[in-house]
Amino acid sequence: MEQELQKIDAKKRYADDIGEVRVMGFVENYVVFRRKGACPSLDTLNGFAKRFREVPNVELRGCALLRSPA
Fold first, then answer.
1. pLDDT 10s per residue in the chain (70 long)?
2. Which of 13, 21, 47, 65 is most exposed, with the fewest beta carbons within 10 Å of its own?
3. Which residues pair with 42 in a beta bridge?
4. 44 near 51, Cβ under 8 Å?
5. Given this model, what pLDDT does residue 3 score?
6. pLDDT of 56
7. What are phi and psi of 43, to 5 degrees?
8. In the chain, helix, strand, coil percent, each to 5?
9. pLDDT at 7
10. Positive/negative CA dihedral, 45, 51, 57, 61
11. CA nearest neighbour of 31 among 62, 58, 12, 5
12. 12 near 20, Cβ under 8 Å?
């Protein structure tokens, strides 16, 4: 169980097939998380680790396509 707690970090972003969730904290053997605009939910550490995957923390604020001169 301690190993799962190290894998799940409140500063990282997680998602499933529905969308992203934010980890709010940990209570004993549970993870408290919520989706944007929704109330908090609870899941066990192992259940959360199986259900959600980590999403890379990349922010795109504008994108320009750069082409090399031909």
1. 454 555 788 888 899 999 999 999 999 989 999 999 999 999 999 999 999 998 876 655 555 555 556 5
2. 65
3. 32
4. no
5. 46
6. 78
7. -150, 155
8. 20, 35, 50
9. 74
10. negative
11. 5
12. no
Whether the pTM exceeds 0.85: the reply is: no
- Could you give the CA distance from residue 4 to residue 49 in angstroms, rounded to a whole number? 7
Ramachandran region of residue 41, left (φ > 0), alpha (ψ -120 to 50) or beta? beta
Q: CA 43, 53, 42: angle at the middle one, nearest 5?
A: 10
Q: Which positions ≥6 away from 63 have C-beta within 8 Å?
A: none
Question: Which H helix or E strand runs over 50?
Answer: helix 45-51
